[in-house]
Design brief:
The protein has 367 residues and is of the alpha/beta class. 34% of the residues lie in helices and 27% in strands. The protein binds flavin-adenine dinucleotide.
Length: 367
């Protein structure tokens, strides 16, 4: 058996680590010249979206011997709508670094991999298919799955972000649901440290947004962040991502070709989380290749999760600023506080996304 992994990101490297544990040395092909060679940004994993798992990093450590260190544990989320501010507190999740940084998740995984990585690879899937018995497509987007007529795109998103200097609490993240500056989207601030944070606007590429100028949205957002954090933040780095594809494969595996990470459809269309599931699909693909379990069966709950998240996205499309004001206003009431405490408690397996999505399905038509 010979295994090629295309892409040395979260899913590809997790796949390699797992294969190695079972005695298979894959060959990894990465088109960049080093692991994580892209802009640095801060991302998050929230426990509430991955129930029944309550602590995602311990889950990888305890079950799959994959070790990842966060930047911080998040214990408070401040949510701004147009006219209201609310907070959610508890064991909410983690923040972590991505990209060209020694502590980025991909670099942490890279240190656990023993197999050879061919950097600056120009190999296509078709080339690898000829040379290897198994190919894991882990290139971070649905392009190959699309080419193989195995992918449905649901949302294209645009993101613009920056690293800023200021004073922050590492365990505190902030989001904005304000359609004045991010129509049908959201914005967030995640600290890297007490002195640096990452600020981002993310909005879907709907026809009504196509005439909007991203620089205008950004300017409004930046002014709002400075106002809400009561500081003049200094921008030290910027990035922009256009047409980030959110969609899912019809089949997670065709013969001996595996679709992992965003190639499978791990990025959730609701709020754009994909890291946890990307790592899982890498591990699951390796399990199938090693004959330990079946990829299609293992990824079934992830497909279900994707569908639930799509319901959330379609619901967000229906809401307006006054709806968000009402939701955010109620976040600080005692009853809601108790409910959130329960949902974030380590003892609960309640899958909020699943049940909210089931409740909303009759009102939301999935195109
Ligand atoms: C700005 C931004 C913010 C995000 N924030 C969050 C967040 O807060 N929480 C969260 O859970 N998720 C977040 N996500 C999504 C998350 O980052 C992805 O879902 C996850 O990284 C997908 O992992 P992957 O293995 O599929 O791809 P990646 O980790 O991106 O790896 C893909 C790798 O394949 C390589 N590659 C591409 N093409 C080829 C080729 N032809 N040949 C060889 N190699 C190739 C790439 O260079 C890269 O190294 C965010 C995404 C973006 C863009």
């Amino acid at each position: 058996m010979s295994v090629a992994i295309m892409g040395a990101g979260l899913s590809g490297l997790s796949c390699a680590i797992t294969l190695e544990k079972y005695g298979i040395r894959p060959t990894i092909f990465e088109d960049r010249n080093m692991v994580g060679d892209r802009f640095v940004n801060c991302e998050t994993i929230f426990n509430i979206f991955n129930k029944p798992i309550n602590n995602c990093l311990s889950y990888f450590e305890d079950n799959y011997d994959i070790h990842l260190e966060p930047v911080s544990y998040i214990s408070k989320m401040i949510i701004h709508s147009k006219n209201e501010v609310g907070t959610i507190k508890g064991n909410l999740g983690i923040s972590n670094i991505r990209g060209r940084h020694e502590r980025s998740f991909e670099n942490q995984l890279f240190k656990q991999v023993k197999s050879k990585i061919n950097f600056n690879s120009k190999y296509t899937y078709e080339d690898l298919k000829k040379e290897f018995t198994h190919v894991v497509l882990a290139t971070g987007d649905g392009a190959y799955a699309c080419r193989l007529n195995n992918y449905k795109c649901d949302v294209l998103a645009n993101l613009k972000g920056a690293t800023v200097e200021g004073n922050f609490k590492s365990d505190e993240a902030t989001t904005w649901f304000n359609y004045d500056f991010v129509p049908k989207g959201y914005a967030y601030l995640i600290p890297f440290s007490e002195k640096e944070a990452h600020i981002v606007i993310a909005y879907p590429d709907y026809p009504e947004n196509s005439s909007k100028d991203v620089n205008d949205m950004w300017k409004k957002f930046y002014e709002q962040v400075c106002k809400d954090t009561s500081q003049q933040l200094r921008i030290t780095d910027r990035f922009q991502v256009k047409d980030y594809i959110m969609g899912i494969c019809d089949q997670p595996k065709i013969d001996t070709t595996y679709f992992a990470g965003n190639c499978f459809g791990t990025i959730s269309p609701g709020l754009g989380f994909g890291q946890f599931t990307a790592i899982l699909t890498g591990i699951y693909a390796a399990y199938d290749i090693c004959g330990i379990d079946d990829y299609e069966t293992l990824t079934k709950p992830l497909k279900e999760n994707y569908k639930n998240s799509l319901v959330l996205r379609r619901t967000l499309e229906e809401l307006d600023d006054s709806n968000f004001d009402m939701i955010v206003k109620n976040l600080d009431n005692k009853l809601f506080d108790k409910l959130i405490d329960k949902l974030h408690g380590d003892e609960t397996n309640f899958d909020l996304l699943k049940w909210v999505s089931y409740a909303l399905r009759p009102w939301i038509s999935l195109k």
